[in-house]
Specification:
mainly beta; Thrombin, subunit H; six-stranded antiparallel barrel; 2 helices; disordered N terminus
Length: about 350
């Protein structure tokens, strides 16, 4: 299928698209396509990654709408501290993202973190060696995504993608059109990002908006708990993430970009990004939707019972004291694009 054959059906309903970013390689394009169900962005019944019951046993994908799944839908009253976790609407699909605290200047821009794979295009994911800096964006960020929230939820346009990559990590930092002060006045609560990786077996809560395969009335913020597993080197198609966090929180499509919050520190220690799809278990190991782990001796193995997240501890080092993203500053630990950009191009213009 050529790029211009990717279609969005007329039955598309805003904020109700069930499938999100199931990817397939298309040899005729020589690249990756963000496609659903035979090449179209369609409502689907499949589930990405793994879901578990409250005893930690893996459930089949068909149970996604049952009360056996280890998660709960959040209410406005009970989930207020998570109201800055919301829906990332890229116009052809959805992810989760979250507002995070960056500095002390209330007039500094507000920033949201999500996955790099949530900021590709309708026809192509970022390349495995690509680092995107300062690109305009038509993405929208929707907060207060509780099932019982009244009145209308706050929708905030994204001004630009200041940093995005799937090289060695899967992150995208989005600058909003509103500043930190404006969102604070609206009562939106930012999360704090940890500057150190989590300990093994650290208790977690993951909060996100499940979409794929879930009923409309459940398509709102959910919280699920688990513990961090060991760090693993994970490969999925052309992508290789060497600092991936194993976990067994219940995750489905739409929850890409959800924060992994330590219940010990209340800080974000990771970001959800992938897992093995039940329908992909007959695919080759390490293919899209069937990630594998790469051992130190180079052997590979797929673990369908594991979900994965990416570490975020290097992100705070790239914000100055005011809270403005600056990839050029000496403390910044994020990887820079190659060939080397001049510092002027690494610092977003006002």
């Amino acid at each position: 299928m050529s790029q211009n054959q990717i279609q969005i059906p007329s039955t598309y309903q805003k904020h109700r698209l069930k499938s999100l970013f199931r990817f397939s390689r298309n040899a005729s394009l020589g690249g990756l396509l963000a496609i659903f169900s035979g090449g179209y962005l369609l409502v689907g019944s499949n589930v990405n990654a793994a879901i578990f019951d409250r005893s930690g046993r893996k459930l089949p994908d068909r149970d996604v709408n049952s009360d056996r799944v280890n998660w709960q839908m959040l209410s406005t009253a009970g989930g207020r501290k998570y109201n800055g976790i919301g829906l990332i609407d890229v116009g052809y699909g959805f992810c989760t993202g979250f507002l995070f605290s960056t500095g002390t200047d209330p007039t500094a821009p507000a920033y949201v973190l999500t996955n790099g794979h949530c900021q590709g295009s309708v026809s192509k994911l970022p390349g495995n060696h690509e680092i995107i800096v300062n690109r305009s964006s038509n993405t929208k960020f929707i907060v207060n995504y509780f099932h019982d929230f009244k009145p209308d939820r706050l929708t905030i346009p994204v001004k630009r993608l200041v940093y995005g990559t799937m090289k060695n990590n899967d992150i995208a930092i989005l600058e909003l059109t509103k500043n930190q002060q404006a969102l604070a006045k609206a009562g939106i609560v930012p999360l704090q990002i940890a500057t150190k990786p989590p300990a093994l077996n650290e208790p977690l809560i993951v909060v996100g908006v499940p979409s794929e395969g879930i009923k409309n009335e459940l398509n709102f913020l959910h919280a699920t708990t688990c513990k961090t597993g060991e760090l693993a080197s994970v490969k999925e198609d052309i992508y290789h993430w060497k600092r991936s966090i194993r976990h067994r929180c219940s995750i489905i499509g739409g929850m890409s970009g959800s924060p992994m919050i330590s219940l010990k520190t209340n800080r974000v220690v990771g970001i959800i990004n992938t897992g093995v799809n039940d329908n992909a278990e007959k695919q080759p190991q390490c293919s899209l939707n069937r990630p594998c782990e790469v051992s130190k001796n180079g052997s590979i193995q797929t673990f369908p019972q594991e979900n994965y997240g990416q570490l975020v501890d290097r992100i705070p080092s790239c914000f100055d004291r005011r809270g403005i993203f600056n990839l050029a500053q000496s403390t910044c630990q994020l990887e820079r694009p190659q060939p080397a950009y001049s510092p002027k191009r690494l610092i977003p213009k006002p």
